[in-house]
Amino acid sequence: MKLFVTRIVLALRHFQQWLVAQLAFGFLTVLKILPADPAINFADWLMRKVGPRTRRHGLMLTNLRNALPEKSEAEREEIAIASWGHMGRLAAEYVFLDQLFDFDPERQGEGRIEVSGIPLFLELRDHPRPFIVFTAHTANFELLPVAGAAFGLYVSVLFRPPNNPYIAEKVFDFRKKRMGKLVPSHAGSSFALARQLEAGGGVGVLVDQKFKKGVTTSFFGRPVKTNPLLAKLARQFDCDVYPARCIRLPGNRFRLEIEPKIELPRTATGQLDVTATAQLLNDKVESWVREYPEQWLWYHDRWNIKQSLDLG
Known about the structure:
By secondary structure, this protein is of the alpha/beta class. The chain folds into two domains: 95 residues, no CATH class; 189 residues, no CATH class. 51% of the residues lie in helices and 15% in strands. It contains twelve helices and nine strands. The strands form two sheets. It has a seven-stranded mixed beta sheet with strand order 1-9-8-2-5-3-4, sandwiched between helices. It has a two-stranded antiparallel ribbon with strand order 6-7. α8 links the parallel β3 and β4. α2 crosses α4, α3 crosses α4 and α10 packs across α11. It is found in: Cell inner membrane. Keywords: Acyltransferase, Cell inner membrane, Cell membrane, Membrane, Transferase. InterPro entries: LipA_acyltrans. Its main location: membrane. Pfam families: Lip_A_acyltrans.
């Protein structure tokens, strides 16, 4: 009897995930009917209306209250609503990503995409060697590996699949066609990235995700656990590490930036300091978020407080 009940519960869960996925796919299919700009703007408007009515809005406001205490409650509410709008844009931009990425080195400034750091892209492409690029969930971060591929610079991208398996499959297929090699985040992902670096290739990593067992660091002055993977890979392969980010501009435009390599902290014996490097990554991401707070995904439970808020 117990086994039967378990099967029923699992079947209902799978059905719920399937239904959510179909609703999401249906919404995106409808958006395809519209031109890119009206569709993206509509998704922004819709999420600004729907997002604040969800339980996650409470987590967003708590995150903002903890991270930006100098802001007023009204300012934090404004940032939260704008962040919902940017999430809507991110979803809609999946549909139009091939149209959005129109960067042409010969016509810089005339399209939707502008790129800062072109010499670095070309230098990494023309002088192959192991390297790591890190970014965060700011604006449309999906455009960064697309930009690398446009320059002929293919990296192995570590990503965390969505919890919904039906959505995860679609997202994986979409990314695989445009972003080079994808490495789902799981127990063996570090070995896949290590093999790429050992072969002289590049790796891309998101460094602002929730992590339960990482090294103890701080983010916006509050304790967090940070994944030490990037620091350990950089130590093992003695490779350069580059920050990169996407900034959403008015008029559904974007600026993609790759910055010069960062100097990683060392211990007194000259070894790369894993904990200090993890903190350095957090500090860089924090500086980006402070500059454009509405473009970060505040609904992420980066500080592991969801349980105390009883949020689903």
